[in-house]
Amino acid sequence: MAAPASDRNLARGPLSGHFRALGVPAAIGMVFNTLYNVVDVYFAGWIGADAQAGLTIAGTVLFVLLALGFGIGSGVNALIGTALGEEDRPQAAVLAGQALAFTVLVGVPATALGYVAAPYMLDLLGATGAYREAARTMIEVQLLATTPFLLAYAANGVLASQ
Fold first, then answer.
1. Of 81, 75, 72, the residue nearest 8 (C-alpha)
2. Residue 1's pLDDT is what?
3. Could you tell me if 153 and 70 are in contact, meaning their C-beta atoms sit under 8 angstroms apart?
4. Dist. CA 56–CA 58, nearest whole Å
5. Is the dihedral of CA 48, 127, 145, 162 positive or negative?
């Protein structure tokens, strides 16, 4: 029987087992992330070409949040992973709590900044007419989920560190 993730020591044991334990769940997660985007485009196509174009443009603007989420998740993973590698579980727990609190403190202003910056970003992309309106609507809806979205990346960083 395989060791629970919390007892896994990456410094011991066969490398192939570590790749399976870490790589397979990550690959499955990426498949679902891709399917999420495919489903969005599919259903936007039912609405019309303007909705599909707006979704694509909105995705470009919202990539900034994706980058912020990846950065937070990677930082959390590194900090907590280091504490766990030093076998300092109390410090790892403190870091996890601080990371989640920090993410909320970043997410709220990021949402406000997103509402302010979105029209300018759409201008930079040259979005006009119905495409622009569809993109703006999509951005405004998705910005409502900024803090939970960033929290998911931070929590994923906590889990990945273990």
1. 81
2. 46
3. yes
4. 5
5. positive
Is 73 buried (19+), middle (13-18) or exposed (0-12) by CB count in 10 A? buried
- Spatial separation of the C-alpha atoms in residues 23 and 27, rounded to whole Å: 6
Tokens, residue 131: 């495409």
Average pLDDT over residues 110-114: 93
Q: Tokens in use for 24?
A: 């397979």
Residues 103, 147 contacting (CB under 8 angstroms): yes
pLDDT of residue 116: 94
C-alpha angle 37-41-42 in degrees, rounded to nearest 5: 115
Whether 50 and 134 have beta carbons less than 8 Å apart is answered as yes
**Helices 49-85 and 15-47, packing angle to 10 deg:** 160
